[in-house]
Automatic annotation (TrEMBL):
Database matches in InterPro entries: Beta-PGM-like, HAD-like_sf, HAD-SF_hydro_IA, HAD_sf, PGP-like_dom2
The entry's keywords: Magnesium, Metal-binding
Short name of any one Pfam family annotated for the protein: Hydrolase
CDD domains: HAD_BPGM_like
Cofactor: Mg(2+)
Superkingdom, taxonomy of origin: Bacteria
Native source species: Nonomuraea wenchangensis
Protein name: Haloacid dehalogenase superfamily, subfamily IA, variant 3 with third motif having DD or ED
UniProt family annotation: Belongs to the HAD-like hydrolase superfamily. CbbY/CbbZ/Gph/YieH family.
GO molecular function: catalytic activity; metal ion binding
Length: 211
């Protein structure tokens, strides 16, 4: 079945933001008294919606969230880089593509601008803010496909998190899961991923193999 649309996740797939969010988020929760390490934070929160994160964290003291946001913003501006190999893949990709992320529009836009990827996806960025339910529900990917005029069965999602893989599977889309990030391959396959990859530069060939 031919591919009509490639839907990229953003954090951990296009930009290497997840180690930053894990480090900053873990430290912030420890200040609240949580006994949590970075591996536990990754399993609980990486790839989730902002609403899910807020529900789990609960009430926080005055100024706590503002400090967290400021620390994250500073770290992103200083450290954010594109995922190695993604630019080479995008240079050779000859299929329509878009971004669909659980992040807020302003955060997605900032990340793409910092890494120089914004123009590659201009006007084709979708956020969990656009739908009632973010990942792991299928709503965001289905919304992106409908807006782009693509048949869900002919869409391929490129993801790095179990939440994203589950959303792709629920949407009836094929999924290429990046296993070179924070999430072990076993968690990705456990979420339903059937195609794993470690080198983003080889994505065009992987997509050709799905035709």
């Amino acid at each position: 079945m031919g591919v009509e649309l490639v839907i990229f996740d953003c954090d951990g797939t296009l930009v290497d933001s997840e180690p930053i969010s894990v480090r900053v988020g873990t430290a912030a929760l420890r200040r609240l008294g949580w006994s949590i390490d970075e591996a536990e934070y990754t399993e609980l929160f990486v790839g989730c919606t902002n609403e899910f994160w807020a529900e789990q964290v609960g009430e926080t003291p005055p100024g706590w969230r503002e400090r967290l946001d400021a620390e994250y913003e500073a770290a992103i501006k200083a450290e954010l880089r594109v995922i190695a190999g993604i630019e080479a893949a995008l240079d050779r990709l000859d299929l329509p593509s878009c971004v669909a992320s659980n992040g807020r529009h302003r955060n997605i836009r900032r990340s793409l601008e910092i890494t120089g990827l914004a123009e590659r996806f201009s006007g084709r960025v979708f956020s969990a803010e656009d739908v009632t339910r973010g990942k792991p529900a299928p709503d965001l990917f289905l919304h992106a496909a409908a807006t782009m005029g693509a048949d869900p069965e002919r869409c391929v999602v490129v993801e790095d998190s179990p939440f994203g893989v589950m959303a792709a599977v629920s949407a009836g889309m094929r999924c290429l899961a990046y296993a070179g990030g924070l999430h072990p391959a076993t968690r990705l396959t456990g979420a339903g991923a059937t195609h794993l990859f470690h080198d983003p530069a080889g994505l065009p060939e992987l997509l050709t193999g799905l035709d």
